[in-house]
Design a protein that fits this description.
- The protein has 97 residues and is of the alpha+beta class.
- 34% of the residues lie in helices and 24% in strands.
- Strand 3 and strand 4 form a beta hairpin.
- Helix 1 packs antiparallel against helix 2.
- The longest helix is centred in the N-terminal third of the chain and has 17 residues.
- It is globular and about 35 Å long.
Amino acid sequence: MLEGKGVVMETDMPLKMQMQAMASASQALDIFDVFDYVSIATHINKEFDKKYGGGAGGGWQCVVGSDFSCFFTHTKGTFIYFSLESLHFLIFMAPSS
């Protein structure tokens, strides 16, 4: 596993949840090919839904890639943007409606 090698660029998550995000990403990179972004993101999304619940709104969202731009709104305390290996990871919970 690659735990401890992630670089957090921006977050408002509690530290324990940040560690879970990087551990889930590391685990996904151990299971899937580094270019299989959809499988990696799906794995992380399912881990967060299972561990932290889907929420009343849109649930957890995960974006994985080497280069992307985005604009979104998130539930306070659920956002992290970090890099691991050559990939960037964006995980957040959509706000409830």
